[in-house]
Structures are given as C-alpha cells and as structure tokens.
Amino acid sequence: MALVPARTIIVMGVASSGKTATGKAVARRLHAPFLDGDDYHSPANKEKMRAGIPLTDDDRWPWLTALAEALHAAADHKGVAVGACSALKRAYRDYLITAAGEPILFVYLEGDQQLIATRMAQRHHEYMPTSLLASQFATLEVPQQDENVVTEPVSLPVEAIADRVVKAAPHLKSFRRKQ
User: Fold this and answer.
1) What is the average pLDDT score of the chain?
2) Domain boundaries, the chain
3) pTM of the prediction?
4) Cβ partners under 8 Å of residue 22, min gap 6
5) Nearest CA among 36, 28, 39, 41 for reference residue 80
6) Superfamily of segment(s) 8-172
7) Of the candidates 140, 144, 172, the residue with the CA atom closest to the CA atom of residue 17
C-alpha cells in the first residue's frame, strides 16, 4: 500500500527500541519539532510504571489524546511534527489518528525481545523498568500493511533509519535539510 501523505510522524515500538533517538534524528532532517510521548504521561501513569505495573487502556487514552493534540498543534505551527510514542496496539494508533484529526505516518522500529532486552539493560529510564518489557511485547500488535507505516529494523544505526524514513515519505521533501 502506498503511504498516505501526513504532516505528523510518530516513531513507535516497544521500550528501548530507539523511538526518541530516531524521532529526534527524523525531526532534525525535517526541521520539525520533536515531541516525546513520555512527556505527556500523567504523574500517576509514571508512578504506576515505576512500580513495575503495566498501564491499562484506561490509563493510556488521556495520554494518547494529549500527545495527539500537541502533535497536531505543532504541525499547525511548523507544517510538520515528529513524535515518539509506543503506540503498541492498532487501537492506539487509530485513536491517535482520530484525536489528531488527520493522517499520521507511523515508523515502526522492529526488533526481537532479546535485542531490545540487551539495549534496555544498558540504559536507565526514569520510570520504565526492564521488568515491563515482556508486557510491552505481549501488548504489541505489529502494524499491518493496510496501516500508514514504514517498518525499520532497530539493528540499523539511528541515522540510517532516519535517512530511510525521510526518503520513504517524499511528500515531506519541502522540509528536508539541504544536503
């Protein structure tokens, strides 16, 4: 399926897949604002995760609404916006699109649980313990071909992934940095 032009890009995947680093790299290439989904979690959500308790759908809806609205506003202001959000279930991706009121291009960072666990063990996150990785993979619904998605392997360097994402979305060429 051909990609639907979208002025909002969300880099998605499980914890420690590289969403923030990749999102920032894509945003740099597009001269776009970058919004990290972690910044839109409520204090209660962060505390729950810090305690090793997976979030429920009811915990996620207000978070997804806040992020989608912020991305929409940022795209209104700059013409394009990039975000990072796990968006693990199709229902969450569909909800983000509805809340944003426009198409979103998702960039799915694909990697197996062993590779991601190795990455997770090498970093410190404010509230996402390694113990929640299994629940992330259990929740993950891999994006399907009928979704507006570019899939990239996490085994590639972040800069290579960012280059590939920008090339895969030619409608964003007006935002690309002159090279």
Assistant:
1) 90
2) 8-172
3) 0.90
4) 11, 84, 107, 109, 152, 158, 161, 162, 165
5) 28
6) P-loop containing nucleotide triphosphate hydrolases (3.40.50.300)
7) 140
What band does 43 get if pLDDT is binned at 50, 70 and 90? very high
Per the rule left: phi > 0, alpha: psi between -120 and 50, beta: everything else, 5 is: beta
Cβ–Cβ < 8 Å for 107, 168: no
Q: Which residues 6+ apart lie within 8 Å of 96 measured at CB?
A: 10, 64, 67, 68, 85, 87, 104
Contacts of 39 (CB under 8 A, 6+ apart): none
Residue 127 predicted with pLDDT over 80? no
148 token code pair: 């507006």
